[in-house]
Each structure stands twice: as structure tokens, then as C-alpha cells.
Amino acid sequence: MERTLVLLKPDAAQRGLIGSILSRFEAKGLKLIGLKMRTFPSEHLEKHYEVHRDRPFFQNLVGFMSSGPVVALCLEGKDAIKVVRQMVGATNSREAAPGTIRGDYGMSFSNNLVHASDGPDTAKSEMALWFSDAAEISEWEPADLGWTYNIAEELS
Ligand code: CMP
Predict the structure, then answer these.
(1) How many angstroms separate the CA atoms of 72 and 37, rounded?
(2) Is residue 150 domain-resident?
(3) Looking at ligand 1, which residue's alpha carbon is closest to its atom 17?
(4) Within the chain, which residues score under 70 in pLDDT?
(5) Are the C-beta atoms of 118 and 14 separated by less than 8 Å?
(6) Ligand 1 pocket, 57 CB below 6 A?
(7) Domain housing 80
């Protein structure tokens, strides 16, 4: 099983889309193991987007992300990083495919509703930043796990 970090950005909260987006991940069969909502300080967002520090959009991005509540999720599942990235869609919401979260709900490049870890190394470092306290992660077994996956082929 793989774990990945997802952020529902301030535009998702302002537009009343938190529940709709979260329900897509649940309905897909991804296991929710971490969830918190807070307006995070710009220092925290600067760390999260450190790789973009020299890009021209960096200050706007940090300003936007610290302008209101962010919902941070930790999701678990087989190939969860790739599965979630596919569900989120292309960075520019106007080009994201219909059926993806950005393709269905967004019209903006910058206000693109969701962030999702783009690979195993990023997922590890982003989860360490957003869920630094292990007590914030819930280890549990969904009752339908053996129906979400094929027990003989995928869970043994
Ligand atoms: P996200 O997946 O959170 O990762 C970086 C974010 O920077 C991206 O989504 C966009 O919200 C934002 N962004 C704004 N402008 C650009 C750009 N020109 N290229 C890439 N990302 C951008």
C-alpha cells in the first residue's frame, strides 16, 4: 500500500467544494488516514513549495495558499500516488480532462483546487511536513477492504 498527500486549496473551501472533492477519493476506494483543516502560515507554505521558490509565481502561490483554510489529507491505497494524480488532472484546470477534479470543477491555472504529491519521494517529504505528528495518522482497516480489492490477487 502507498500513501500520498493531498491538499484541498483555499479556493475549494471558498467555493464549497470540500465535500464533493473528498467524496470522490472515498468513493474511489482510497483510505483516508489523515485529515485536518487550518489556515496555515506562509512559512509553512513556503516550505511546501520550496522547489518553486525561484519561479515567478512563487509569491502569489504562497499568498493564495495562506489566504484561507487548506484541508490536508493523507490517503492510502495500491498505487495511491498515481491514482490520485490521475483523478486530480492537469495543472491548468482549463486543460484538465473532463472526469478529473480540476476538469470538472475548475477554470484556473493558479486556483486549481487540489495539490497532490507527484512521486514517492515527494509524498514522503510532504507527509512529513503536513503530518509531522504520527498521532495525526489513523491506522485502521476499512470493513470493505476485501471488496475494494481482490483478496487473492491484490491483498495477499
Ligand atoms: P500544485 O499542484 O499545487 O503545484 C504547484 C502550483 O503552482 C500549481 O499546483 C499551481 O497552483 C501553481 N502555479 C501557478 N502558476 C504556475 C505555473 N506557471 N506553472 C506551474 N504551477 C503554477
Answers:
(1) 6
(2) no
(3) 57
(4) none
(5) no
(6) yes
(7) 2-138
Q: Which residue has the cell 502507498?
A: 2
How confident is the model over 100-114, as pLDDT tens digits?
999 999 999 999 999
Contact 73/22 with Cβ under 8 angstroms? Answer: yes
Whether pTM > 0.70 for this model: the answer is yes
Determine, yes or no, domain membership for 153. Answer: no
C-alpha cell, 142: 476499512
48 catalytic? Reply is: no
> Residue 57, CB half-sphere, CA atoms under 13 Å: how many?
9
Residue the block writes with cell 471488496 = 147
The enclosing domain of 38 has a CATH number of: 3.30.70.141
Torsions phi, psi for 136 (to 5 deg): -85, -5
C-alpha–C-alpha distance, residues 79 and 82, integer Å: 6
| Burial of residue 98, with CB atoms counted within 10 A of its CB: 0-12 exposed, 13-18 middle, 19 or more buried | exposed
pLDDT value of position 69: 98
Cβ(140) – ligand 1 distance below 6 Å: no
